[in-house]
Write a structure and sequence with these properties.
This protein has helices at 28-33, 39-51, 59-70, 84-96, 128-137, 152-159, 179-183, 190-193, and strands at residues 74-79, 100-105, 142-146, 164-168. The protein is of the alpha/beta class. It has a domain at 72-193: Rossmann fold, CATH 3.40.50. Helix 4 links the parallel strand 1 (74-79) and strand 2. Helix 5 runs parallel beside helix 6.
């Protein structure tokens, strides 16, 4: 199974000419489809399927539409300290659009890096588990990740009780647009993404 390298993508066309190793042909698909019948999964999947065909909107507009159509009222914002200014604007956008917001920064608690076996420094480590637990305590309906580091976002998503979406990912080099490197993978970034092997 390697959908990224498939040249057919038969799943988009009713499985015509699907290769033998296509995961769409697995028996588990029917069992997995049953999971869409739970109330929360059904609502999220239905709204997402509807919105995915509407183009010409930014990610934040789409997030607002999604939250409205799912009936979410209380939005949690889990943000990186490096994007504090952006988080303030995003908070204003959500509150202007009649959502209640709860926001929490990554350095919450001022936890020393010693807790994970690193040398103590003046800069506390990011604390995504606490971010998730505080938003759980606030009983948010939907949580939005804003620029958490790779791995920190994983822990936040793992511990969040509410559904999560990522509004922005951190990429300090490419102005938080990580696909920039992908689009330049055959040119400028080729030697960086595909370094010579010994």
């Amino acid at each position: 199974m390697n959908c990224a390298m498939c040249g057919i993508h038969a799943c988009k066309n009713g499985l015509k000419n699907a290769p033998k190793n296509c995961p769409s042909l697995e028996e588990d698909i029917e069992k997995i489809k049953e999971l869409y019948k739970s109330e929360e999964n059904y609502s999220i999947a239905k709204v997402s399927a509807k919105l995915s065909t509407q183009y010409g909107r930014t990610r934040i507009e789409e997030t607002i539409d999604f939250a409205n159509q799912c009936g979410y009222k209380k939005i949690g914002l889990a943000f990186c300290s490096a994007l504090a200014n952006e988080a303030k604007i995003i908070d204003k956008v959500f509150t202007y659009n009649d959502f209640e917001t709860v926001s929490i920064m990554c350095k919450v608690g001022g936890v020393s890096k010693e807790i994970v076996g690193l040398e103590k420094s003046t800069n506390p480590m990011c604390n995504p588990i606490t971010q998730a637990e505080f938003l759980n305590k606030a009983e948010t309906d939907f949580n939005v990740v804003i620029g958490l580091c790779v791995g920190h976002d994983s822990l936040f998503i793992k511990y969040s009780k509410a559904p999560v979406t990522v509004l922005a990912v951190k990429d300090r080099v490419l102005a938080h647009n990580p696909l920039g490197a992908v689009y330049l993978a055959d040119t400028f970034y080729k030697k960086i993404l595909f370094p010579p092997k010994d």
